[in-house]
Amino acid sequence: MAVRRGLADLPEDALVLVACSGGADSLALASAARFAGRRTGLVTVDHGLQEGSDRRARSVAAWARDAGFDPVRIETVSVAGLSGGPEAAARTARYDALTAAAAELGAAAVLLGHTRDDQAETVLLALARGAGPRGLSGMPSRRGIFRRPMLDVARADTRKACAALGLAPWEDPHNTDPAYARSRVRASVLPVLVDALGAGVLGNLARTAALVAADNAALDELSAAALVSARSEEGLSVPVLAGMSPAIRGRVLHRWARELGAAGGALAYGHVTALDALVTDWHGQGAVHLPAGIAVERRSDDLVRVVPGHIS
């Protein structure tokens, strides 16, 4: 039912790809997608990070072909040279491969098997990092070509579905490796919360993410319009920015910094706070230095981008 709802807006003949690792969540998702009667293909990504990962990928692909998925693809990726830790690098490589496969095959959507438990873990990790509303909104149900139709489905239910279908899920050793923060949350933190607060805590965390995401969407619309109103010939108008509520002004400054070329993953709370101080706590301070070598300073009643070496 969750998968049918997640695909209801697509044409009946649209190709849908399922990203499948062979784990319980993605196997259950793949089976549900096939049951929904859609034209369904499957892509499994071999990151090459574990011994035998190529055999695992071939096994998933063989199962998919036997089950009637078409097309079936194995995408082999390398994380060498990618920024971030092992998890971040693998995620970047995986999403790049899935995006490329979808474009080549003409797929209308790529389904990801994240569950309610994954969403709860994401919210807890965001809280631990001190993330703002964007982090607390968790994983979006949709972003571009990617869709997560099982964010309301418990992880335990995907295992039950696999058992009922006679499927033997692959157990990713990374999911129990204490070297990874998400694995520690999964193995140690969530069980304690469930024991102390009841099983409903997982659904409540996921529901919180959905509520915050809806607020974020509304604030993003307001901040996009506010950015237009704040533009000046030089950059951004300080008086216009000063008249905005802090929540909107922070988003405007974040959006503008992204426009200037600062990557979202590198743009931190401290950067936006420093930009905000040029508006609300101006006492002649120097330029604010953003990621990618970008510098912004206040000149009279404007925030302007400056070239390093030409800073006032």
Automatic annotation (TrEMBL):
ATP binds at residues 21-26. Residues 16-187 form the tRNA(Ile)-lysidine/2-thiocytidine synthase N-terminal domain. It is an enzyme of class 6 (ligase). It is found in: Cytoplasm. It comes from the Bacteria. Its main location: cytoplasm. InterPro entries: Rossmann-like_a/b/a_fold, TilS/TtcA_N, tRNA_Ile_lys_synt, tRNA_Ile_lys_synt_N, tRNA_Ile_lys_synt_subst-bd. It catalyses: cytidine(34) in tRNA(Ile2) + L-lysine + ATP = lysidine(34) in tRNA(Ile2) + AMP + diphosphate + H(+). The keyword Nucleotide-binding applies. One of its GO terms (biological process) is tRNA modification. The N-terminal region contains the highly conserved SGGXDS motif, predicted to be a P-loop motif involved in ATP binding. This is tRNA(Ile)-lysidine synthase. It comes from Actinoplanes derwentensis. The lineage of its organism: Bacteria, Bacillati, Actinomycetota, Actinomycetes, Micromonosporales. The gene is tilS.
